[in-house]
Amino acid sequence: MAVLEREIIAPVPGAYNLENYDALRHTFSWEDAAKELSFTKTGKLNAAYETIDRHVDEGYGNKVALHYVNGDERRLLTFQAVKEKTDHYARVLKSHGVKKGDRVFVFLPKTPECYISILAIIKIGAIAGPLFEAFMEDAVKDRINDCKGTVLITDNEMVKRVPQKDIPSLHTILDVGEIENTTFDDKNDCDLVEWVDLDDGMLIHYTSGSTGKPKGVLHAHRVVTHHHASGKWVLDVKDEDVYWCTSHPGWVTGSVYGLFAPWLNRATIVIQGGRFKAENWYQLIHELQVTIWYSAPTAFRMLLSQGEVIKNFDLSSLRHVLSVGEPLNPEVIYWAWKQLGVRIHDTWWMTETGGHLIVNLPAETIKPGSMGRPFPGITVGILDEDGQELPRGSVGQLAVRTPWPGLMKEIWGSKDRFNAYFKYDGWYVSGDLAYQDEDDYVFFQSRDDDMINSAGERIGPFEVESKLIEHPAVAEAGVIGKPDPIRGEVVKAFITLRPGFSESKELLEEIRIFVRNNLAAHSAPREIEVLDELPKTVISGKILRRQLKELEINRTKSS
Ligand code: WT7
After folding, report:
1. pLDDT, tens digit, for every residue of 378-424?
2. Which family, according to the similarity comment (predicted)?
3. DSSP code for 533
4. Radius of gyration of the chain from its Cα atoms, rounded to whole angstroms
5. Ligand 1: does its nearest atom lie under 6 Å from the Cβ of 495?
6. Ordered domains of the chain (ranges, CATH)
7. Which SS3 state, helix, strand or coil, does residue 42 take?
8. 196: Cα separation from own chain's centroid
9. Prior bond to 376 cis, omega within 30?
């Protein structure tokens, strides 16, 4: 395998927009990249206008903007229709008093209405906070409370998971059905779009760190330059493409590369509702003739493990496949190469970075096992403990030279948590460990902290531990990511029990369900193990997650 992993996969001739990216690497500038957006010509900026309305104004109103697929349901909307629906939602929000800078949350399944709600909020200058559809009450509550959201768009099912009485700032809950049915006598469209400054807030995504509650990562309207440029060069969108990103907009991949980047490049996108099922996914690619597909290693590994099913579908429409969120195994790249005749292009970025930073550009050579090379205009550094750059081949902290257009504007309400990313002058420190080879390719090693990455979803151990100790039987908890062949990692909890409780299968299951029902299914520990005591630091008594992880990994090795 060692030889195979170093093998270099050459690009497929004729498959991509650009055949030679060397020129781009030498000539690229963010200023030039922004020239295709309208604000650089008109001086008027609004991310929602750039994403949808601009195409209508440029004569592409009749182009299909989206295909929606959910079970047997099929819908199709043109750019004109998306614009009109967005305007309607914007008008409803305005009629409820939403103003520039307000935080408006969206809690909806993956439907066209979810995408349209996000755009409508941004169109009127408010800040959109998309929430993942599987969140339970506490996860919803913590996020909206943190930035004092005032309005929430949801539906009559999901509203049951919104504890409104515990969210004092939230004065209005709008049901999508009611929004759809609202009528206006006087449509005053001319002032719907709020023109904003580059640094005005646009989007807030909550993400986990290894300590504390989730952080509200705030992006400003200027981020669209990054979305647009990476959509063009990395996603390689052409007018005739059908583009499918499998992530929900509650995660940053689902908003940035599910909504903004493809639509800024006028792509026809696919929105697919419902759960993962290999047959349905292959069927969707086949039926809609998907040409560009962006997904995650866990999904590819699940498909790979289904074996022969793939043979029942014609997937020859696919010309460009991308991956993000967790390490992409070389085996998966070889599987796709053999089964689909396409390469999987890994990409690396974070909620905080606003867009791709390390990528495999379409027509460049892939080294399986590597995440690719820095995007044009981006400089990567591998730093030691003092913030000094290490020589090629050494493992260190993966950092990026500041600034770039997509870099977050702030962590909501916390300068300290924001500043922690910039501890070395001129660098953004990612929290990942990696090395870079002589050809600039970057190889991910691990996280530099206790963050858990399960199926590409970022889970903070603190949030899970806090929930666990709310259960009456749990005295203390330490939560780690346990290596897993399909999901990368799964959540594992080590706990001690309170006096009077004794370990039983039923109790552990009850504790697991408790986390699941309050936080989210993906945060609930797949395994809970009871210990007599948890390892702690001598001085501060902090639980040593690293020691728990070592214990787990050594066991896996010896079994
Ligand atoms: C963390 C960021 C915004 C992208 C989706 C996840 C891990 C991301 C890769 C990759 C190995 C990756 C890193 C990073 N990660 N991409 N290609 N290979 N690891 O965004 O939820 O903000 O998580 O995901 O550890 O720090 P996120």
Report:
1. 999 999 999 999 999 999 999 999 999 999 999 999 999 999 999 99
2. Belongs to the ATP-dependent AMP-binding enzyme family.
3. S
4. 23
5. no
6. 21-436 (3.40.50.12780), 452-558 (3.30.300.30)
7. helix
8. 25
9. no
